[in-house]
Design a protein that fits this description.
Order of helices and strands of chain B: EHEHEHHEHEEEEEEEEEEH
Shape of chain B: globular
Strand order of the largest sheet of chain A: 1-4-5-6-7-10-11-12
CATH superfamily of chain B: Class I glutamine amidotransferase (GATase) domain
CATH class of chain B: Alpha Beta
CATH superfamily of chain A: Aldolase class I
CATH architecture of chain A: Alpha-Beta Barrel
Number of domains of chain B: 1
Radius of gyration of chain A: 17 Å
Helix content of chain A: 25-40%
CATH topology of chain A: TIM Barrel
Oligomer: heterodimer
Largest interface: A-B, 31 and 36 residues
Strand order of the largest sheet of chain B: 2-1-3-4-14-13-12-9
CATH topology of chain B: Rossmann fold
Shape of chain A: globular
Chain lengths: 283, 217
């Protein structure tokens, strides 16, 4: 088995780190740069920034966050959210990202995967697939943080993005995202089994046991985690929230609440338990 | 004394910012350039790279960089190769039919296997942290000075190098049951398959070692 990567995912809205449930209902958690630095120092194998609103106005603050972070953090940094053109991709790479993550633009115009992988190299292009399980049991890909229906079959799409030159697939179970109920193992394992390229599993992790399941039963090559780490990090950083900033719901943070079904842990603890379970990961 | 200049060779492929950030971080005076005259004046060269071997060589040839790189390396200028920059140093690659490389090192570039002998499936590209192990070249006073046997570095690649001379192998790595060369050293040339600039503080120490050992700071 290959060495498994643990990738903290930071959802960003304007200048803030946020977290929602099912990719919606965003709560402000703090400053992304501080979280990123903390995760880097505690052994994150990569970092992922996702701009969850991605309007033109907000894009400037994302670039600023990327360039500040890239100067201090020497592990791969993937940036996604609202990237629509080769020029958009070029901009975040110039700001210091190592890889970009495409979703909406890729479904609307699959050729962008081919163009981008030719121009920047396959290993720079991650395609995110936001999957929702339909009542008939099929999985369909959604876009725009799962707000837009596309009718595209997830497994066909996964095969196509690989043919077009994607270097990795980030598969999100929207039904599980932010719930702490664990990965959708059916979804993850089908994608990981069919893909010849690495698959990053995302959505639903509530405990370290869920991560182990995603790797051992799901066959994921990497796991993207957010809630599991963020709530513990808030306690560690005790970063004062920017009260002048009215960009999101900060009440959650001020009241120091967290979810009952999400274990609060850190990267070293996760890696320790992974190793105990016989999973190969970096110290 | 004149400040030493390191040039990152920009052959218009992939992203050079992380290499530049790492160089800045350790205090190297560094610029990225594909200007033959700038490269000629450099005290040290870095050959980075992400992307395809054939396209990289096409760009290098179009920019007329092959003669100057060879000339400077033969004149003893230190050269650090990273990832594709390691592969380009060899004679040829089997990527998309045979493609000729710079030929500064003897050997070829081959595709990573996607299945082990035991039938276990492996992903290609390898996008993963992986360990490096000692081979023929002792690590002391090389970029791997103070790196411990089995240290993890970050790898992203579909191809690997197979040097003709075992005596030039600096380190090796295992993937899909294959032990392959993940670093080489020959005189003033040193190159690694992984990305030290993406491998945490340990990776950064490789740039620092290289800068100090070549008196570039």
């Amino acid at each position: 088995m290959s060495v498994i990567r643990i990738i903290p995912r930071l959802d960003i809205k304007g200048p803030n780190l946020v977290k929602g449930i099912h990719l919606e209902g965003l709560r402000v958690l703090g400053r992304p740069e501080e979280f990123a630095e903390y995760y880097y120092e505690s052994g994150a194998d990569e970092l992922m920034f996702m701009d969850v609103v991605a309007s033109l106005y907000e894009r400037n603050s994302l670039s600023e966050i990327i360039s500040k972070t890239a100067k201090k953090i020497f592990v791969p940094l993937t940036v996604g959210g609202g990237l629509r053109s080769i020029e958009d991709i070029n901009q975040v790479l110039r700001a210091g990202a190592d890889k970009v993550c495409l979703n909406t633009a890729a479904i609307k115009n699959p050729e962008i995967i081919k163009k981008a992988s030719n121009k920047f190299g396959s290993s720079t292009i991650v395609v995110a697939i936001e999957a929702i399980k339909e009542s008939n049991g099929t999985y369909l890909a959604y876009t725009d943080n799962a707000r837009e229906y596309t009718g595209v079959d997830v497994f066909e799409w996964a095969e196509k993005v690989q043919d077009l030159g994607a270097g990795e697939i980030l598969i999100t179970s929207v039904d599980r995202e932010g719930t702490g109920e664990g990965f959708d193992i059916d979804l993850i394992s089908r994608i990981a089994m069919q893909a010849g390229i690495p698959v990053i599993a995302h959505g639903g992790v509530g405990t370290i046991k869920h991560i182990i399941e995603g790797i051992q039963s799901g066959g994921a090559d990497a796991v993207s985690v957010a809630s599991l780490l963020h709530y513990e990090t808030i306690k560690q950083l005790k970063s004062p929230i920017h009260t002048e900033n009215k960009e999101g719901n900060t009440e959650f943070l001020r009241n120091s609440r967290s979810f009952n079904n999400i274990q609060s842990t850190n990267i070293q603890q996760i890696k320790g338990e992974l190793r105990d379970a016989g999973i190969h990961c970096r110290q | 004394m004149k400040e030493k200049l390191t040039v990152i060779i920009d052959y218009k492929l992939g992203n050079l910012f992380s290499v530049k950030h790492a160089c800045d971080h350790v205090g190297l005076r560094v610029i990225t350039s594909n200007d033959v005259e700038v490269i000629r004046k450099a005290d040290a060269l870095i050959l980075p790279g992400v992307g395809a071997f054939g396209e990289a060589m096409n760009n290098i040839n179009q920019l007329n960089l092959q003669p100057i790189i060879k000339e400077r390396v033969e004149a003893g200028v230190p050269l650090l190769g990273v990832c594709l920059g390691l592969q380009l140093l060899f004679e040829e690659s089997e990527e998309f039919g045979n493609q000729l490389g710079l030929g500064l090192l003897a050997g070829t570039v081959k595709k990573l296997p996607n299945v082990s002998e035991g039938g276990e499936k492996f992903k290609v590209p390898q996008i993963s942290w992986n360990t490096v192990h000692t081979e023929r070249v002792p690590w002391k006073d090389t970029i791997l000075d103070s790196v411990t046997e089995g240290e993890y570095f970050y790898f992203v690649h579909s191809y690997y190098v197979s040097p003709k001379n075992d005596s030039e192998i600096l380190c090796s790595t295992n993937y899909a049951g294959l032990k392959y060369c993940s670093g080489v050293m020959k005189n003033n040339i040193i190159a690694v398959q992984f990305h030290p600039e993406k491998s945490g503080e340990k990776g950064i120490s490789l740039y620092r070692n290289w800068a100090k050992q070549n008196d570039l700071l």
